[in-house]
Amino acid sequence: MATPNIKFIPPQMADPSKYTTRANRQGPLWLLLKDTCILISVLRYLPLLFWPMKSKNGDNEKKTSWASIRDIVVQGMLFIVETIFLILFVPALVSLPGVLFFAVSIAGGLLIQLIAWPTQGPRLMQSNMNPETLRESDNHQDERWVFINGICTSSSGLQENVDRLSLLFGRSVLGIHNQSYGMIGDVIECLLQRCLSYKTMDVRVACEIVKGCLMDPEAKKVVLIGHSQGGIIVSMVLDQLFPELPNESMSKLEIYTFGSAASHFHNPPILPRTDATDSSPVDCIKYIEHYANEYDMVPRWGVLYATRALLTNRYAGAVFVHMGATGHMFIQHYLDHIFPVPGMTDKAHNGPAVKTNGSAGNGHVVQNGESTRQLIQTHNHHVEEAQDVEMGSSYLDGIPVVDEQASAKRQDVTLGSLVKAKKNATPSKSARPSATTNGDAAPTLNGNVHRIGSFVIVKGSPSTQTQKYGGRTVRQISRLWLYLGGRSPPAEK
Fold this sequence. Notes:
alpha/beta
C-alpha cells in the first residue's frame, strides 16, 4: 500500500499578542461578504464532495438502505425548492407588497421544514455498542465523548457516525444532531454562524451538553469531535464556555475535527503553576487536532483557508492535510482512510439493538458484530504487536511534510511588528534567495527578520518546526489514534 502524501501545519504558539479572531477586527457584514466570496471561489471543488464514489467498505454513507434512499430523495427535493426560492427571492422582494412577501416567505420556510422533517430525529443520540465495546467503555467511566455532525446529515446518518466512533475507540459516544435543512440551507446557516455568531438551536444544545460534561466532577476528560459544520459549532461552544467556566474545567477538553468549516478556534493561554520550571504561557486546551482532505471544498473554505491565508487569525491546534485527497463524507472519506476498521463488511454491526441495564450513559448493545470489534481489540499484554497488525493504516504510518511557509506565517507574524519590520528591515549583503512553496524568494534580512513573498517574518525560524516534527509519522504526532481499540494515551507526568 502506497504511503499517502500528508502535510502537517504545527499548532500556533500560545501568545495573545499575536492572534485574535476575525470578529474582533472586522464587522459582521464585511465578514459575511468576504466569506461568501471565498465560498464562491471554492465552488469548483463541489463535485469532489462525494468523490470517490466507490468504497471497499460497505458500512459507510454509500451503503444502500431505505434510510439512505429517503435521505437522498429529501436532500434532492430540498435543493430544488431552495434553489427556486433563491432565484425568486429578489424579484419577489421588489414586486410583491410587504405583507404578501412576508406571507410567501413564511410559507416557503414551512415547506422546507415539512420536507426536511422525515430526516430530523431527536437532538441527542447515544451510540449503539456490541458487548465487547460495552465492556471496554466500562473502563472509561470518567470520560465523556461527544460528537457533532456536519451538513446534510440525517438522524440515521448521525447514528451511523456515533456507532462507528464507538466501535473505533471503545467508548460510549453521545451525538448532538445538527439538523439539516438541505445543502443550501445548511450553507446559509454556516455563514450566519461564522460571520454573525448566530447561536442556532444546535449551538445552544451543544453548549449545555458540553458544559454539563465539563462541570461533572466524575468526568476527568471530555473529548469533543466535530465534522464539517460541526467544527463551526465546536468553535462557537468554546467561545461561549471560555468566559463562563474556570480553566480547570476547560482544560479537561480534547478537540478533534474532520473537514472543519470553522473560521477560527479560540484557545486562550494560561500561565503554568508557580512551581513549574518553564514560566511560558501554555494553551488551556492541550490537545486540538484538525484533519482535512486537500480537495475537500469545506475545509478549503474553513480550516485550510484560516490557517494559510489569515495570518493573525486565531486557529488553535495542529492540522493534518491529506494532500491530493478528495471527499467530505465523515466515515467514507475520513475515518475509513485515517482510522480504518480491519475486515469491516456491510454486515459488521447491523442487527437488533436491545436496551441494557448497564451503567448510565452506555447507550445500547448490538447483539451481533462482536467478531468485528475483536479485529481492532488490543490485548493488554501485546500492545506493540497489536499496533502493527490490528491498527495498521497507511495514513498513520505516513511521514508528514511540515508546511514551513504556513508555520512561519502563523508563528512569527505579530499584529504590530509586521508594519514596523517592513519599514526598518534592510536586505543583508549575504542574503541568498531560496525557493518556497509558491515560488517566491525568501531572503534573510536583518538577523531574525525574514521575508516570504510579501510577508515579513520578524522572529523565530521555521526550521525549528521541522526539527520538532520532521521525520515523525502521523502515528507519532497524532493524539487521537492513541484511543483506538479502547486504549488510552500514556498518563502525563
